[in-house]
Amino acid sequence: MAEKETKHVSMGMAILTLLIVAAIMAVGLAVLKIDTMVTFILSLLAVCIIAICLGMKLDDLQEVILRGFRKFALIGMILISVGMVVGTWMISGIVPSIIYYGLQLFSPSSFLALGFIICCIVSFFTGSSYAALGTMGVAFMAIGYGMDIHPGLTAGMAVSGAVFGDKMSPFSDTTNMAPAAAGTDIFLHIKSMIYTVTPSFIISLILYFVLGLQYDTASEESMASIENIIVTLDECFNISPFLLIVPVFTIVLVAKKVPAMVALVIGALLGIAAALIAQPQFTFNEVVTAMSSGFTMEFEDEALSSLLNRGGISAMMSTFVYCVFALELGELMFEMGVLSVILSKFSEKILKPCNLIITTLFSCLLTVMLTTSQYMAILLPGEVFRPSYDRAKVAPYVLSRTLEDGGTIFSFLVPWSAAAIYSTGVLNVPTLEYLPYAFLTLLCPICAIICAFTGIGVFDSEDKKLLGKTRKPVA
């Protein structure tokens, strides 16, 4: 069949296809500023044309594209569930309570360390690095200026905290994308990330604490923005520690390995119950509508509005579509053998877990540099390297972790990537200025490489530890 013939593209055609996709994404996103969704569609259409020119029949082409969509089914339902959770947890006062109690711990003498922790908390429970940077990041920048802290240091702290949630939160789109692309479970994925994120988090916290010891005063003006958020939250919501039972219970469900979609739906339903009990100022209609349309409320503080006015199924639709096209594009490129012919040149080395992990990291970096897209840097390398991890007998959750250590992280460090451009815009600090102080983002890839060489946190397909065995093929 023609579909089989397209699996043996030449090295030249494989490289040409990659260059065309990279050019469309890079020019479309970085130069022409075309909508991300449109660039995905154009990339998919370009690869479809190449596949037809190589002899793939239209029926086979349609089947390959549909196969990519079927792979997306589970992650699509999870994304919908995440939207429901975020919307109900906002209107119920759960997320506002988390932010409220977190800010109560803040003091000038421990600004960097506590700011880092608060950004981690906000990004984890909202599942959005962008939301954390656009709210807590902006507020902390003002305080940092008041304490005469180097702007790059404050911005690096905020980016590190925001990225933590992007990597570890079950509500984050990238945390759901990576295991879907690698063919593993989100719980195993999060558990696997502990090996690289935990040491990175601890070292980062120590560094921010030590660097922050020299600052023990802050002007009243610089503290006003934080105090205003605390007062506004107290006025608009019934803040209560009992509301924290819902996220704790949801985390317990995750720990008990309840299917992600089920755990999230239960969390959303508990959010509705909490809203009806604790927030009588909202009608039943407003509470249940938050599942689909998210939470909306007028606040005088714009930072607070951008933080809390979010969630709902509708908010996940753009990410939903991005994933569909990216997975379809990855499935088609895999079926054509675009990257397999390139990887085959390194087949002996790539069967070694150490080299495979490091190659995956650098491929994520290259993808970010060529496409400027965090999503592409996770989904495409995931589709490409998944068969290699199977052949090397390395557990798929090692692949998903590496995709996050590379794709999610590097997108905040490459100055022309979408995530870095956003960070620079909201924090008003150039990427290269905050990069040396974004400790978590710098340490995660380093920890991933250390794990690759030592075998710490690396497992084979039977979940056996590969400690000290990663420099040779798995038996």
Q: What keyword list fits this structure?
A:
mainly alpha, single chain, disordered N terminus, 475 residues, 24 helices
Q: Helix segment count?
A: 24
Radius of gyration using CA atoms only: 22 Å
Q: In one word, what is the shape?
A: globular
Largest sheet: none
In percent, how helical is the residue content? over 70%
Strand percentage: under 5%
Order of H and E elements: HHHHHHHHHHHHHHHHHHHHHHHH
Separation of termini?
35 Å
Unreliable spans: 1-6
What structural category arises from helix and sheet content?
Answer: mainly alpha
Q: What is the tally of beta strands?
A: 0
Mean pLDDT: 83
Describe this structure in words.
This protein has 475 residues and is mainly alpha-helical. It has a domain at 75-316. It is 74% helix and 0% strand. It contains 24 helices and no strands. Helix 4 packs antiparallel against helix 9 (173-182) and helix 7 (129-146) runs antiparallel to helix 11.
Topology:
Layout lengths: L1 H4 L5 H21 L4 H18 L4 H34 L2 H11 L6 H16 L2 H18 L4 H18 L4 H10 L3 H27 L7 H17 L8 H11 L4 H19 L5 H10 L8 H7 L8 H20 L3 H4 L3 H4 L2 H19 L2 H18 L4 H15 L7 H10 L3 H4 L4 H16 L21
Helix pairs in contact: 2-3, 2-19, 3-16, 4-9, 4-13, 4-14, 4-16, 5-6, 5-11, 6-7, 6-8, 6-10, 7-8, 7-11, 7-15, 7-22, 8-10, 9-10, 9-20, 9-21, 10-21, 10-24, 12-13, 13-14, 16-20, 19-20, 19-21, 19-24, 20-21, 21-24
